[in-house]
Write a structure and sequence with these properties.
Porin
Length: about 190
């Protein structure tokens, strides 16, 4: 039976949104604890803009990840955890590239775009979760992303993949820092002495 519900917010995309121009993203998490085994769903939105003297590139879309994790620490209290896991991830996005240059024939503008691109990949995860105050926990998660597949590509080869990283890489490593709220699930059974 489920013992805890986990609600999490990833602070890394927020920091990138605030301090790095051209990046806007949000990422949340919902999980259920089945006695040290976690069923987890991540979901997020991402928009990236890259500009130069002669080009501009815009990529925006959504992504989700679903998978399982297991707590390798046994007999721990306060829901602290050290986890290993496996996730399946998908993203759906559109992107557009505009280039303006001389090209030897006078100034020309070339515009290419992908209306709908779908990507999928797998992730191996390693995480740490520590109680800081009552039901509030801080923790990180390292993701090793593998077996990437893209579908729906047109003439434009995407530069970014929401939730994955750079498209030119076959594998990617991600780092997330979560603020989590862990809620007990169900009622405890009280033993009545006669």
């Amino acid at each position: 039976m489920p013992t805890k519900i986990i609600l999490g917010y990833n602070a890394v995309p927020l920091v990138r949104t605030v301090f790095f121009s051209g990046s806007a993203a949000q990422n949340g998490q919902v999980g259920i604890d089945f006695a040290n085994n976690f069923l987890t769903v991540d979901f997020g939105v991402q928009r990236t803009e890259r500009t130069g003297d002669t080009y501009s590139y815009i990529n925006e879309g959504t992504f989700y990840r679903v998978g399982i994790e297991t707590n390798v620490l046994k007999n721990v209290t306060d829901a602290n955890s050290l986890t290993l896991g496996l996730r399946y991830a998908r993203s759906r996005f559109s992107d557009e590239m505009e280039m303006t240059d001389d090209f030897g024939f006078g100034e020309m503008t070339i515009n290419t775009a992908n209306d709908v691109v779908k990507s999928r990949w797998w992730e191996l995860t390693f995480g740490l979760n520590v109680k800081v105050y009552k039901q509030i926990y801080f923790g990180y998660l390292i993701r090793y992303k593998i077996y990437k597949v893209n579908k729906g590509l047109g003439e434009l080869n995407p530069y970014d993949l929401p939730g994955f990283g750079l498209n030119e890489n076959d594998t990617s490593v991600g780092f997330d820092y979560y603020i989590r709220w862990i809620l007990p699930f169900g009622r405890k059974t009280e033993v009545v002495e006669e």
